[in-house]
Amino acid sequence: MDLDELKVRLKINDTSQDAFLAVALEAAIDYVKQYCRQSFDEGLPPNVKQAVAKLVKAYQENSNVASQSLGDMSKSFFEGGTMNEVHRLLRPYRKARFI
Asked: What are the extents of the domains in the chain?
């Protein structure tokens, strides 16, 4: 997954956030590889790419906000919601740990 594909998934058309997105993309992919315990040498499957995009989006937002309103627009967050969704998407790709 490269920066251009991430920007398509996040519906970002300008270049003003490219430096941040590149760093966040690298961190999100690293998190996914560690969480799944695999390197994805053949490339990231679509659901894994979706999980990476959700992580990057979460890095952009202030997820400590319980509720936010601006005019007639309202946005609510609940604790762990993004990570629960990310982990749900990654569950089929996570390798078991043997002790």
From this structure: 3-93
